[in-house]
Each structure stands twice: as C-alpha cells, then as structure tokens.
Amino acid sequence: MGVIIINFKAYREGSGKQALKLAEIVEEVSSKVDDYIAVAPNFLDIPEIVSKFNVDVFAQHVDAVTFGSHTSRITAEVLKEKGAKGSLINHSERRLRLADIDFLVSKFKELSLTSVVCTNNVATTAAASALSPDYVAIEPPELIGSGIPVSKAEPEIVENSVKAAKDVNKEVMVLCGAGISKHEDYITALDLGADGVLLASGIVKAEDQKKALEELVGLR
Ligand code: G3P
Predict the structure, then answer these.
(1) Which of 80, 116, 124, 185 lies in the 20 to 30 Å Cα band around 220?
(2) What is residue 218's DSSP assignment?
(3) Given the CA of residue 60, which atom of ligand 1 is nearest to it?
(4) What are the residue ranges spanned by the domains of the chain?
(5) Cα separation, 190 vs 218, whole angstroms
(6) Closest residue by Cα to residue 136 from 76, 95, 184, 196
(7) pLDDT in tens, 68-114
C-alpha cells in the first residue's frame, strides 16, 4: 500500500478547529488501513494536532534560514521542536530557489526531519532527486485543485517522473499530486510506479471528509 499526504492548505475546512476535526478523521481512518496517511496543516495548527492525535504532521513550507535576524520566517529547528515529522518544500504555491531547497534538504537530514520536495515536471523532479530528499512530489500546477487527476490526465508525467527520479537516486520516494480524490486515482498512481500521493481539495473540501478519505483508501 502507499503513502498519502493530505495538504490542508489555507482552506477554511482545514484550518483551526476544522483542522483538528480533519486530523481526527485521518487518525481514525489510518488505523484501519495499511496505507501511511500524514497531514500537512498550517503552522499554527501543528502543535495541537501533534499533541492530540496519533498522526504524522508535516509543515506546508519551511524557510531556508537558521536562527537569527529574519522576520516572519520558520526554521526547520522550530518545526522539529514543535513535533513536525517534516515539511513540504517548494510547493508550487510556495516556490523556493534551488539553493534554498538544497540547504533545507541537508538541514532536514541533520535534524532527522522528512523532506518532501515538490516539483512541477520531469526535469525538476530529476533535479530535486539529485539533492537526495526523502520524497519528491510531482504536481503539474495546472491540475492542482482542478479535480482532474494527474494519474489519469497525465500518466506519462507520473511514469517519467518516477523513472527520472529513481535513475538519479534509487532511494528517493516519489509521490504525485493534483486532482487526486478517488480510490481509482490513487491506485492508478501506484500502478504507474509512484509510492503514493500528495493531495488537498479532494479530501479537505469534500462535503463529507471522512467518507471521502474512506473512499480514497478503498474502505467504501
Ligand atoms: O499539495 C497538494 C496539492 O497541491 C494538490 O492539490 O487540491 O489538486 O489535491 P489538489
């Protein structure tokens, strides 16, 4: 079975009290399946979710700085102290420079945090893999939030990204994302060689989040 990371983004349905409810759903559903399901809520919700639920929590972003005179920045060290398992890095809604990604991947190794570097095409997936993160996550930006699953609409980008990533670095795990919401989309992603999916709106914006997650993992 695979890896599922749910990005709560800044959706109302995934923020504050709603983030806690959704984390509880994830905890419950993940206890019934072999899939690894983790959440990526906004920064302020991380500590409470970490303390209340048995679910791995990722940040949605982290800045390429260490402690010092940087205003409104989040360091990897603070994420670690607050109990985050790791972070998305370079999400297409929060891009970073290559040197920053490199810095963060190294810093995460030092701190034993899990790095999930997002990419937008096959070439950037290969480039990110060369930095040896734990995961790369290929997400064509035009499909994000579209409800059109990347695994069905652009299977070749998933397949080629998996190949490009593993050619560069056999250890790297590959996720794909954008428009994933159904069990079939998830299974297709795994069949294409991905280790799992990174998704948001299909679960966070679903009318019934629990039902949507159960459907995604094949419990319904
Ligand atoms: O980080 C996941 C994301 O960008 C994909 O979004 O809403 O298409 O699942 P969505």
Answers:
(1) 116
(2) T
(3) 1
(4) 3-216
(5) 13
(6) 196
(7) 999 999 999 999 999 999 999 999 999 999 999 999 999 999 999 99
Instruction: Pick the catalytic residue from 28, 61, 70, 139.
Output: 139
Classify domain 3-216 by CATH number: 3.20.20.70
pTM of the model: 0.98
Query: Per the structure block, which two tokens stand in for 152?
Result: 């069905």
Ligand 1 atom nearest the C-alpha of 144 is 8
Supply the pLDDT for residue 1: 87
Mutate to test the pocket of ligand 1, among 199, 203, 213 (most ligand atoms within 8 A of CB): 199
Name 42's Cβ contacts closer than 8 Å, sequence gap at least 6: 8, 10, 14, 15, 19, 60
Q: Is the pLDDT of residue 4 over 90?
A: yes
Q: What is the mean pLDDT of residues 38-50?
A: 98
Mean predicted confidence (pLDDT) in 109-125: 98
